[in-house]
Every structure is written in C-alpha cells, then in structure tokens.
C-alpha cells in the first residue's frame, strides 16, 4: 500500500559550508577552526582539508540547477562565519554577497532556502580567544547572526542557529576528534553552555528584528536502548547516554534546566569541572536558552544498544572516530562501565547501524516529551557507503536508495502516529569533506569526482526524485 505525505511536507537535502565550498582563502575569507585543525598532523584521515572540497563556491549555479533537476523543494546550507566576518571582525561584503547570490539562485529555482548559521566553522581568531569556552562568544555570535540577517533577512524565512551543539562541544572540546581538538571535560561543559547561550541570544535578537522569522536549532539525537530492558545496570547505561547526548541539550532548550541526574553523574567524574561550569551558568541564562522556537531540527543517523555490564565486549560503539594518531578521549565524560552492544544490524561505511524504526521512535518521543508546540524537521539523515562507479559512469547504490526510502517511510510512520514532522533533508546532496574522515566517506546522492569536480546523480538520487514527485512511499 502506498502512503502519502501531507501537501505541505518539504523534501530537501543538506550540506554545510566547510564541507563543500572550497575557496577557503578567497574574497577575504580567513581561517576557521577547521582550516587550522585539518593541518594538525593526524587530525584528518589522509591529511585532507576543505581548501577545494566540492568547489561549490564557484559552481553554485550548476549545483542549484542539479537540485532543481532532482526536484528538491528545499535546500539546507550553512553560512561560513569566517567568510561573512573574517576573524570574527567587520562584515566582509564579498563574503556575504556569495550567500546573497546563492539565495537568489535558489529562489529563482523555486527552492526554499534553509539557512544554518553555525555548522562548526568558527573563525580561528575567536578560538584563540577561547572559542566556545569564552562567554564573550555569545556576543560575537549574535553580531554575526544579525549581519547575515541584514543581508538575507528579506529573502530567507527559515533560520537555524546551531548545527549539533553536542558535536561542537563534547566531540570537539572533550573528545578532541573535531576542531579545535581539545580533550577537557571542563571545556566540553563550558562550550555546551555557551553554544546554547549563543543560540538563545541570537534567537532573541533575530526575533526582535522580525517576529515572523521561523527560528530553530538542529540537534543530533539518538535512541538509547537498554540491552536488557529488565536489567537495572543496562537501564542505567541507557539513561546516561540519553542524558549526555539528548537531554543535555533538549532540557535547557525546552524545559529551561539541565538534567539533574546527569549533573549528579558528572560530579562523580569531575566535581571541580562541574563547579566551574555551574559558575559559568548565570542566573538568567536558562531563560534565554529556553526562548520558544518555531522549529526543532532532528539529525538522526543511528541508535545505540547499551549495557552496564563491563565484561561484555564493546564491539558496537558507534562513536569511534579517527584521530588514533593523536590523543583523544571519550565524548561522554561519564562513560565508565558503559558498553555498546553489537546487535547484528547491517552497518554502513561509518560503522553505524542501520535502524530506520529508531527514527520513528525518536520523533514520537521528541514530539511527546519536548516539543508538542514546535514543528519538527529531520534536518539530516543519510548514509556513507563505499560506492562503485560502473563502466558506464553510473553509481548503482541500491543500498543507499533503500536506506533513503526506509527512513523517509519511518518519518511518515511518525507523522501517522500524530507527530508534527514537516520536512526531511537527506544528508548529503553531494559527497563532501566528511570532517575527521576527509573525503574517504561518501554520503551524497550525487557523486563528486574530486579530480574533475564532475557531479553524477547516483541511483539513490534518482530514487529520491521519484519519491519527491510521488510524495509517497
Ligand atoms: C553530522 N556522532 O555529524 C554533521 O552534521 C554533518 O556535517 C556530517 O557530515 C554528518 O553528520 C555525517 O557524519 C555527526 O559521533 C558526526 O554521533 C558525528 C556524530 C554525529 C553526527
């Protein structure tokens, strides 16, 4: 039986500035933390960087034509802070003009622009003043948000402040596998708070400008299941991962408080860091952070099955990132005794399990527990596979086509269960710079030949076009 999506549901695809633009030092852009981190020996597989990436900065006209050909209704992209305000300083007209031309091109193609202000590429000059660990960053970020709004506010309706603050705090400042590569529990805690504070301040400032803007944030979220649902240790392991990954961000945004159980756990790990973090959380901060939103973006890649029995083997851990040549740590400050259990589900090229029903459960849970008043969008979902290019130049990625169809269907399942989900963005429009993995992992529905910059729509891209045209699965 085929089932249809609501008429207003939006189908799109997503990218991020550093991952596709290239032109890293053109037209006044200066270094971001990713330009700097990519040059640290051992930080990125193959010592690759985003200097050229997909050369989207020069090819955006063709890329928008490709989006139109695919039938995308919306396109999620990010603006580069160091292009718009190099070194975090005054506005760079040439930099912001690029986004203005991109937005015009999208609107001309009838594609709704979906803008993210921060997708991890903060100016390196600001990192040198402490980056997200320095409270002043909230003012810098708000200035940056307003300058993007100055230029694009007349044409862009949908604004996302942050992409995945868990990644820009704990993966970046505690685990050390993403820029700026620090390994400190305190820095992870401080940066998570300042990312949320910056989000709240920017939402307030943008809303003051224009009450009609659709404002939101994108979080990476997971379903954390206990291996044995009757085992107290397994239940507790699932609680701790859910708390550190999901609730650490959801609770301040939607409930105006940090999860007390996790604060308690963290105190056992590093009481000094928790005390310093508590000093950094000022009285009014949580009111600012919980400013009501119009949209919550949910990024879902995989779920996790957890055990609290240390003797079990930790084969299932999806949070393994490269960086073995550098000192790295767990992104979860409270990880002792937690094991990820292998459950035999198929795995992707990232080692992540394929679990579409997890997306349905996640959306239902978020809709019920946190966001009954806010519209949900799946702002990222996608898969890396080791694509094979045929003799005819075609990419027969039946595995990705199936993944896409199954997750679009899982989104529809949530809608049918009453959750207000209004869009789905596949990650990613095209193969691109996959952070610490460099160009080794391909998520695109469009293949990029990094020698020639030629784009080829994969079988999964054609499949997505058919789904969008039919508006049903
Ligand atoms: C997201 N994890 O990153 C990002 O938003 C994208 O830029 C990225 O390309 C995409 O997912 C694929 O990786 C994540 O460790 C990186 O759980 C790591 C995790 C989650 C999301």
**Rg (CA only):** 21 Å
Share of residues in helices:
40-55%
Shape: globular
- Main CATH class: Alpha Beta
Proportion of β residues? 5-15%
Can you identify the CATH superfamily? Glycosidases
Structural class: alpha/beta
- What is the oligomeric state here? single chain
Straight-line distance between termini: 8 Å
Bound molecules: 4-nitrophenyl beta-D-glucopyranoside
CATH architecture descriptor text: Alpha-Beta Barrel
Please give the largest β-sheet: 8 strands, parallel, barrel
Q: Count the strands? A: 13
Task: Encode the helix/strand succession as letters.
Answer: EHHHEHHEHHEHHEEHHHHEEEHEHEEEH
The number of distinct structural domains comes to: 1
CATH topology: TIM Barrel
Number of helices: 16
- Strands of the biggest beta sheet: in what spatial order? 1-2-3-4-5-7-10-11
Averaged pLDDT: 96
Low-pLDDT stretches? none
Give the SSE layout.
Elements: E1 10-14, H1 17-20, H2 33-37, H3 56-70, E2 74-78, H4 81-84, H5 93-108, E3 112-118, H6 124-127, H7 137-152, E4 158-163, H8 165-174, H9 185-209, E5 214-220, E6 224-226, H10 232-255, H11 260-269, H12 271-280, H13 285-289, E7 295-299, E8 304-307, E9 339-340, H14 356-369, E10 375-380, H15 398-416, E11 421-427, E12 446-449, E13 454-457, H16 459-470
Parallel strand pairs: 1-2, 1-11, 2-3, 3-4, 4-5, 5-7, 6-8, 7-10, 10-11
Antiparallel strand pairs: 8-9, 12-13
Bound molecules: 4-nitrophenyl beta-D-glucopyranoside (PNW).
4-nitrophenyl beta-D-glucopyranoside (PNW) binds next to loops.
